[in-house]
Amino acid sequence: MLNEVTVTRYITPLREGGSLPGLVEGDDHGAYVIKFAGAGQGRKTLVAEVVCGELARRLGFRVPRLVTLALDPVLGLGEPEQQVQDLLRGSGGTDLGMDFLSGALGFDPLGFRASPAEAGRIVWFDALVGNVDRSWRNPNLLVHRGDLWLIDHGATMIWHHNWPGADASAARPYDASEHALARFAPDVAGAAAELAPLVTEDLLAEVTAEIPDVWLTGEPGFTDPDALRRAYARPLLARAATVHERVTGIEERP
Fold it and tell me: C-alpha angle with apex 152: 149 to 157, nearest 5 degrees?
């Protein structure tokens, strides 16, 4: 399971995210970006962050360390902004945190280059998890000490919003025409040869074990959190072997 940190101070909202994440301090004196369980997108966004973030880490991508954040809603009492106050009061309990990368800059495809190999690995991963939120408009990539870091995976695995169709989603194509890295001639086939064999049933079981039970309980159609964990793993396992064949939108680009 992810390490648990207790929030001791709410510092400031981060207005780049649609769900109004915030910057907080933990009892370990670390600074974290907090994603709230009580935000409009709900706990499935947090599950997606964990599954995709921890899978990406195990596949060799740079992803900020994830933790669970124990939040006391009383921290919201002194906040002057009503929206922030409501989020803090509505998110008591277990929230998600990620290490704050001090000094990191948002990725600009006009000012930073990626090799075809690196671009291919990221496009392949986004195709695997169905990431619809890594476009040139909103790259959700950071440049930290010269390296690319992946962030914000809440808009992935859209099949978990419709479980009856989840297994069939393994065959869904992925349109990469507006991907933030499409201009760098991504070597998706090379990435698939490297990464697809690593996505195994055991690896996915390890990844989904990181999801806190509290975000999985009460899901209609599932008897317990472990049954839901297996449901998250199945489409990813089925998709990994051949998803590179269904990536579209890159071959048309000069």
Answer: 120
Q: What is the pLDDT of residue 202?
A: 98
Q: What is the pLDDT of residue 40?
A: 81
Answer whether 107's CB lies under 8 Å from 180's CB: yes
- pLDDT means per 10 residues in the chain (254 residues)? 95 77 96 94 94 98 98 87 90 97 93 94 98 93 96 95 91 95 96 98 98 96 97 97 95 49
Amino acid 18: pLDDT: 60
Q: What angle do CA 39, 43, 45 make, to 5 degrees?
A: 85
Helix (H, G, I), strand (E, B) or coil at 170: helix
Distance, CA of 53 to CA of 45 (rounded, Å): 12
Cα 195 to Cα 120, 184, 221: the distances in Å are: 11, 19, 32
Alpha-carbon distance 61 to 147, whole Å?
A: 10
**What's residue 254's pLDDT?**
44
DSSP assignment letter at 17: S
Biggest CA–CA distance in the chain, Å, is 55
> Measured between alpha carbons, how far is 24 from 101 in angstroms, rounded to an integer?
13
pLDDT at 252: 46
Dist. CA 74–CA 12, nearest whole Å: 16
User: Do residues 108 and 176 lie in contact, with contact meaning Cβ atoms separated by under 8 Å?
Assistant: no
The position carrying tokens 């390490």 is 3
- 118-121: long-range contacts, CB 8 A cutoff, minimum separation 24: 118/148, 118/181, 118/184, 119/181, 119/182, 119/184, 119/185, 119/186, 119/187, 120/186, 120/187, 120/188, 120/189, 120/190, 120/191, 121/60, 121/61, 121/191, 121/194, 121/195
